[in-house]
């Protein structure tokens, strides 16, 4: 198989052997981020489709996720670092009940490499933990990720909780994840939250939103 197809297959098949060598070869012609966005994420998309249609079982999805994570970790040192921090601080979490963290960790990498300090508190985080971290670290913004449809409901509850605690004006909130839509965030979620709440389709939109918010 040609290199790009081979790399994509590695994600789909959850095949780690030889991954680094293929990534090294890809790095000779393309930047790390292009490899992630144009090849590896394509592979994850296929995994999602196979899983969604019942053609792939969960343990194999997990293996694919592990390959994806290994590849991103391997590529991270090769990414261009535009800035050394100091543009602002964001607390990042995957919401309560949700374990998906590949997207959140990509957002972490992109923001960290572009001048933001990221306090990544992990997966399955209840709103109390998110707010505690934001308070403790003096965050300028809060980012929540979640891929399950259920997580979009949790996000709404989280915003309602922030509103009822009277902290809506303290932190702008960035939301992302596959089950969210711009319309849901801008119509439904803004209705329960007086503060700023923004939808980010991908990690780059997350970065441009932060740049706008912190300007
Ligand atoms: Co799960 N899973 N999964 N899964 N999984 C999905 C999300 C699903 C759509 C698959 C499907 O059915 N087609 C489906 C959800 C269905 C729904 O809710 N309607 C699903 C399901 C059902 C489940 C389980 C319930 C399965 C089960 O147990 N029966 C279970 C849930 C467990 C739980 O959370 N409690 C489960 C488990 C898993 C694994 C553990 C096996 C694994 C996750 C491993 C890990 O993350 N460490 C996994 C995976 C890998 C997926 C799919 C296949 C791929 C997700 C992924 O990593 N994509 C996924 C299919 C899909 O998404 N279509 C699926 C790549 C990643 C880069 O994309 O996270 O969307 P994403 O991030 C994007 C943007 O969304 C955005 O930026 C990124 C790109 O730049 N973004 C942000 C994300 N967060 C952001 C935050 C921001 C800004 C942008 O600012 C704060």
Automatic annotation (TrEMBL):
Coiled coil: none annotated. It comes from the Bacteria. Residues 87-215 form the B12-binding domain. Residues 1-87 form the B12-binding N-terminal domain. Belongs to the vitamin-B12 dependent methionine synthase family. Modular enzyme with four functionally distinct domains. The isolated Hcy-binding domain catalyzes methyl transfer from free methylcobalamin to homocysteine. The Hcy-binding domain in association with the pterin-binding domain catalyzes the methylation of cob(I)alamin by methyltetrahydrofolate and the methylation of homocysteine. The B12-binding domain binds the cofactor. The AdoMet activation domain binds S-adenosyl-L-methionine. Under aerobic conditions cob(I)alamin can be converted to inactive cob(II)alamin. Catalyzes the transfer of a methyl group from methyl-cobalamin to homocysteine, yielding enzyme-bound cob(I)alamin and methionine. Subsequently, remethylates the cofactor using methyltetrahydrofolate. This is Methionine synthase. It comes from Plantactinospora solaniradicis. The gene is metH. The chain holds residues 634 to 848 of 1170 of the full protein.
């Amino acid at each position: 198989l040609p290199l790009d197809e081979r790399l994509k297959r590695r994600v789909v098949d959850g095949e780690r052997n030889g991954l680094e060598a293929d990534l090294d070869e890809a790095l000779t012609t393309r930047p790390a981020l292009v490899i992630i966005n144009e090849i590896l994420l394509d592979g994850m998309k296929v995994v999602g489709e196979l899983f969604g249609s019942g053609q792939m079982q969960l343990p194999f999805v997990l293996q694919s996720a592990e390959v994806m994570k290994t590849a991103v970790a391997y590529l991270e040192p090769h990414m261009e670092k535009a800035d050394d921090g100091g543009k602002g601080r964001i607390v990042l979490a995957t919401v309560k009940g949700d374990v998906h963290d590949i997207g959140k960790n990509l957002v972490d990498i992109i923001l960290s490499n572009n001048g933001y300090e990221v306090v990544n508190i992990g997966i399955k985080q209840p709103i109390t933990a998110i707010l505690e971290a934001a308070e403790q670290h003096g965050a300028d913004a809060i980012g929540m990720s979640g891929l399950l449809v259920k997580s979009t409901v949790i996000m709404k509850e989280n915003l309602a909780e922030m509103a009822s605690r009277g902290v809506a004006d303290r932190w702008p909130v960035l939301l992302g994840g596959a089950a969210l839509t711009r319309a849901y965030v801008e119509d439904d979620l803004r209705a329960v939250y007086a503060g700023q709440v923004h939808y980010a389709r991908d990690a780059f939109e997350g970065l441009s939103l932060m740049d706008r918010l912190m300007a």
